[in-house]
Structure prediction request, 398 residues.
Amino acid sequence: MKVIFLCQRLPYPPDRGDRITTWHFLQHLLARGATVRLGCFREEDRDDEAVAFLRERGVTVEAPRLDRSARKLASLRGLLTGEALTLPFFRHRSLATRVSAWLRDDPPDLVYVYSSSMAQYALRGFAGPRVMQFAELDSDKWAQYAAAGGWPGRWIYAREARKLLAFEARVAREFALSLVVSEVEKELFVQRIPGVVPQVLPNGVDVGHFTTAGDGQRHPATAVFTGVMDYEPNVDGVCWFADECWPELRARFPDAALLVVGSKPVARVRALADRPGITVTGRVPETPPFFDRASVAIAPLRLARGVQNKVLEAMSMALPVVASPQASQGLGADLPAGALTVADGRDATVAAVARHFADPAAARESGHAAAAWVRRHWRWERMYERLDAMLADLGVAR
Prediction:
């Protein structure tokens, strides 16, 4: 099977949400024996190592460098052309030339696209099966930014939401299959793009990697937040928690600690380290040791949809999770008691975290129930089976 796989970032290492998903599905296609040609972008020097890693595994890689500052200027062309600014931001001549040549000279059996912005490379020149893994509608993210922002950002965000939704609708109607990450996203998709019914392909979790080493290092009044810390929903969520919830928690639990674990912390996040009890780590080799120091994980995201990897990973590490309604969508309603507390607003969030701090034994019991549940329902192997069945329905051979 010959596959062209398109995504925004190099899908390795799997250290952030989109890379986790693209790496696991790309790896599965390779394990099935597929020949993969990958089109994506390099964003930093360490990405050169990822390119070498993928090529050693037989992947043909076209990954031009993406300078985000320069691309922001380039994206303004969308104001002249009437298109979403996201599209010229991710439009690159050499990548377009290479993908066009792949499609023309050696047509694949399948084009697999992750993130709607990359679909622009596969809208022409191929009549075979094309799969668009939206995960969630990017246009809805911009709509959330518009609802939360002030002028003039609100106008720009609202425009982006409208223009990008129109492009997403075009892609959904031209591609053979659209994929979303949860039933919640499916419902939204059907409302926003009438006439197209997507299939649900959730994220999974690497339960082998995210396995607790035991409770020996755990502190009963420590909370942990994980994520890439230049991503606005993460920045907004953890700073909101530090401003609104942390002072009361520290007053009630003088030894309380908050671990903010993730790469690229922006100035607002780095400044949190000046507050009592808060540690900001920056990039770490791996996150499991930090999960194992905590009694509860938090996901107080206010700008979010879909299934959050940080929630699945924390639960797999035998931690109960306190999450906002936005970060809790898509997990279903059959969770074990105490495994996930949906907390809407300051008072509910403080009460839920305090409950875990005050009763470490109950927190441990809830955490281990969460780990068992994740292993039953959310391991990656279950998602691979779903993908295989979907590809078989499209007539894509093994």
